[in-house]
Hints:
Trypsin Inhibitor V, Chain A, 3 domains, 4-stranded mixed sheet
Amino acid sequence: MGLGFSSIEEYVKNHLRMFILSAIALVILTGIVAVSVFFVVVHGEEQTMVPDVTGKELTEALLELQVKELYPRIQLRYTHTSRDKGLILEQEPLPGTIVKAGRRIRLVVSQGVIVNRVENFISRNIDEVRMDMMTLQAAAGGIALLSIKEPIMYEYSADRPGTILAQKPEYGGEISGPLAVEFVVSRGRDNQTVTVPQFTGLSIPAALNLISDSGVNFRFIQKAGSDGESGETVVSQSHAENAAISINTPVLLTVTTPENIPDNEVFGIFRHTIPQNPYPLTVRLEALLSSGERQRIITVNYTGGEFTVPYKLPQDTVLILSMLDRELLRETVRN
């Protein structure tokens, strides 16, 4: 018994439906497989353990990272010795950390010391060399690669005071780590003398300027003016004009107090004991006004001892004493 037309049509429809459903199922399955492969590739990267390369040569460290399919990110750093130049100082992540392949590992590599030879310091000023060494220390991240061995040896010579006469180690010596350099420094001529200028009759500012120019040692005292004496004036000096005295001998200068002092001003003598130096160093006294303005009172080369300077300034002015541009003291002016 044969199939009727309607039966054939129904048969075709059933097979067509099954074919379409199979095709759709195949497409869905293919999509699921593709998505699965994608996530396996993205999220299933091979994991590896970070090796310990600290203390190893850079080339050796790079080879070990390459085997683990890890990549370096290199940073350079100066250290206090030349013996560790090219070695790995630090790494991040730490050894033993599990990471994905392809991860970048931060390596800190030593560049050794910032300088590797002792330079020639002879004929340079010891204070300039000290400042250079401080700058070098800052550039090396706080590591004192070079320092001055204390106490410094001083001797009399015809060279300018503060001039370096000899050094140890000598020029060209290798620096393998922190090094203290020994210096022999000039303190100037033995029994060096200066000629005393005429101070009597000068105003206080003029006397201070003359002290700066002449290089004499000095001390100030004050007194009330007598008949015929002007205020704020040098009225006597302990050594006569044109006298030759030792550079360390102070000239005592007597100044008169002002005839009239406004209520908002103060007249006095600034006093501070400065440690004795082997030769004169640059000392500066400044006035910091309430407006923020700075006024220089005196700049002078001074060997040390009691430092006395007269002043007349508004109340609450701040006096600033410095030596070699290093602040020693601040003092507020008050009655």
